[in-house]
Amino acid sequence: MKFDDYSINPAIKKALDKLDFKKPTDIQFKAIPPILKGEDVLAIAQTGTGKTAAFAIPVLHKLHERKQYAREDGIKCLVMVPTRELAIQITEVFQTLGKHTRVKTFSVFGGVEQGPQIAKLEDGIDILVATPGRMFDLVSQGYIRLERVEILILDEADHMLDLGFIRDIRDLMKFLPRKRQTLFFSATINEHIKDLAYSLVSKPIRIQVSPKDPVAKNVDHSVAYVGMDDKRFFLERVVQENAGSKILVFVRTKVRAERVHEAMKRVGIVTETLHGDKDQKERLTSLNRFKKGDVKVLVATDVSSRGIDIPSVEYVVNYDLPEVPENYVHRVGRTGRGTHKGKSVSFCSPEEKPILDEIEKFLGKPIKVLEIAKDDYSATIDFSSEAKPDVMALMREHEAKLDSMKKAPKVSNANKKKKKK
Ligand code: AMP
Fold it and tell me: Domain DEAD-box RNA helicase Q: where (predicted)?
């Protein structure tokens, strides 16, 4: 089935066409019809499956087709997300897909000034994408009114629970009309998530996408056994062998992110870093430089791994293995998005083997091993540009020795001459 065959408004089809989205992804195929019908939906789907468009397309259609349209009515659809990055990204999807509609989407999130957000809210908007903290500030100050909300979407609900937003979500429910459509999206499911989901939705249509293999089929992912201190040489090699590709590198900590950045700088590779020590503005700048392709390598921590949609990342490198096994799925899910193909490699040092075992248990199968022959391993280190300055230094040392050897007789002759005088 193609998007052409759907009864969705031509204004949205035009945007889909521009994006070159021809066929729905699995989650879109399953979710769009019930959402259009007004059903509640409970969907288990990871980022990368096309889940944003799975709710954006039908919601835009419904709001655009409303007969009596009055913007003063207030916010019609509220999308709750765990992070600012995700808020920005989802807003972009709504704005791109809704470009030819009269639906207005806006996002509010913390870390930036409140004033401009309030001014925009007063203009009147239809869809609000929000992170819980800033949203509650604005609701309690009376800048956001939610009594006209018809559709509530919770995206990455599992991540919202991880971040401790459960109370905020429950408090928020008091401001929303009881009669509404609720769409609940989560990458994983457990008892807590089920509890939350069933307290919000009513008689939902349940949708699950590729439950058996949490890593999308179009991602070729493997693991390479690499010593902790040798990882930088292998990253250098991946970058060189994939020149021109966008590479997303995941590390365990902020400190390591900066260290990798420095190590790459030493060998002439420019990288950007994305981690919690950077303020909102710096994070957005880094992300945008990477998105635009000004910088091809982005070194990030897990904080930034969830929900970020960076178009066409060809390669994901797990420089360090993630300590939470399901983060492997989220990280690797940054590539091979939609219908694209992607590649990923994880560097596993001997001390990380137990973490790898946990990840494989979570995936329900082993990860393909990228065998590195001994010669190849040492060549990777020997051919590193980092090694080159040492070679140069050795050569200089050698030349200096030769020089001094050449000069030595002259000196002694001179000395002899001096002595004669
Ligand atoms: P998401 O899971 O919403 O983060 O989307 C993952 C990626 O898939 C995004 O980069 C979208 O642009 C892309 N995408 C979504 N739907 C489609 C589609 N029907 N065809 C091709 N690409 C898509």
Answer: 1-29
Alpha carbon distance 220, 216 (integer Å)? 9
Are 108 and 121 spatial neighbours (Cβ–Cβ below 8 Å)?
yes
Using a 6 Å cutoff on CB, does residue 338 contact ligand 1?
Answer: yes
The residue whose two tokens read 């089935």 is 1
Q: Domain ranges for the chain, please list them.
A: 3-209, 219-371
pTM: 0.62
- The Cα 352–Cα 341 span in angstroms is 28
- Mean pLDDT to the nearest integer, 225-236: 95
Q: What are phi and psi of 56, to 5 degrees?
A: -65, -40
The C-alpha atoms of residue 292 and residue 294 are separated, in whole angstroms, by 6
Which CATH number does 3-209 carry?
A: 3.40.50.300
**Sign of the alpha-carbon torsion through 173, 109, 78, 204:** negative
Q: Do domains 3-209 and 219-371 have the same CATH topology?
A: yes
Which ligand 1 atom is at minimum distance from the Cα of 52?
3
Q: Does domain 219-371 have CATH number 3.40.50.300?
A: yes
> What strand order describes the sheet that includes 151-154?
105-108, 127-130, 77-80, 151-154, 181-186, 41-44, 205-208
185 lines ligand 1 (CB under 6 A): no
Residues 250-273 pLDDT 10s: 999 999 999 999 999 999 999 999
Ligand 1 mean position, distance from CA 52 (Å): 7
Residue holding tokens 């050795």?
Answer: 394
Ligand 1 center–CA 252 separation, angstroms: 27
For ligand 1, whether the C-beta of 214 sits within 6 Å is no
β-strands 297-300, 219-225 pairing: unpaired
Determine whether the shortest distance from the Cβ of 337 to ligand 1 is under 6 A: yes
